Each structure stands twice: as structure tokens, then as C-alpha cells.
Amino acid sequence: MIEAETPILSAHGIEMWDYVVLAALESATVPSQSELATAVRRDKTRLIPILDRLEARRLLSRTPDPADRRNRVVALTDEGRAVFTACRKDIREMEAKFLSSVPSAKRRTFLEVLEHLADDAPQG
């Protein structure tokens, strides 16, 4: 699936980890960088270059946390939300085509297994 998603992400000017971060921000309340690293299961030091790239493209913003100025609050911008929404739509269309020949019950089981594997994946 990643191989099939890569051209879609590239068409929107982002990479796989960019999409993962945008997805986490789209579904979360304003997290700190540390909370975001935990949510996407990525070491903080490996997350920073991704955030730098997305912020440079104005897809997210980082501001000092009013409760603790040592932390940064990360949020999607309107442009970031638009890019994420367009990518998600295109990926879902590709997945629907990819899985169209699989019977509904088997497709559901397959997707449940993928979710389980993703939930159990080690943080990287």
C-alpha cells in the first residue's frame, strides 16, 4: 500500500511521515511536540525535521505553550488541513479500487488486522 500511496503523497508535495503527522494533528486537540511524538510513535529527535519541513510549507504552526514556555504547541494551518483532506480523499479512493475485488467480510478482517499490527508496532 505504501508503494501505491507514495505517488499520491508526492502529487500533494508531502512524504509518508508528513501525512502521518498531519493526520495526527487533524484528529487531535492541540498537542505539544512531545505528545505528538508519542501519538505518531516517532522519537522526538526524528520528528523535529518533519515538523520543520511542514512548518516551512505553512502546513502547521508551532507556538510556545502558554502553560509551559519550554514546550511548543503544534497545530494544523488551514493550508495543512486542505492538503491533508485532499491526500486522504485520494488515498481512500486508491484503497477502494485496490480492495474492490476482495469480498466485504474479508476486507473488513484485513483492515482490522492491519490496525492491530499498526497499534502494536514499536515506536521508531
Description:
The chain is of the alpha+beta class and 124 residues long. It has one domain (2-120): Arc Repressor Mutant, subunit A (Orthogonal Bundle). 64% of the residues lie in helices and 12% in strands. The chain has 6 helices and 2 strands. The model has no long low-confidence stretch (mean pLDDT 90).
Q: What are its keywords?
A:
Arc Repressor Mutant, subunit A, 64% helix, 6 helices, 124 residues, HTH_MarR-typ, two-stranded antiparallel sheet, 2 strands, alpha+beta, WH_DNA-bd_sf
Helix percentage: 55-70%
**H/E series:** HHHHEEHH
CATH architecture descriptor:
Orthogonal Bundle
Q: How many runs of DSSP E, i.e. beta strands?
A: 2
CATH topology: Arc Repressor Mutant, subunit A
Total domain count: 1
Helix and strand content put the structural class at alpha+beta
Q: Mean of the pLDDT scores?
A: 90
Strand content: 5-15%
Assembly category: single chain
Radius of gyration: 16 Å
Strands ordered across the widest β-sheet: 1-2
Shape type: globular
The name of the CATH superfamily reads Winged helix-like DNA-binding domain superfamily/Winged helix DNA-binding domain
Distance between the termini: 20 Å
Low-confidence stretches: none
Number of helices: 6
The profile of the biggest β sheet is: 2 strands, antiparallel
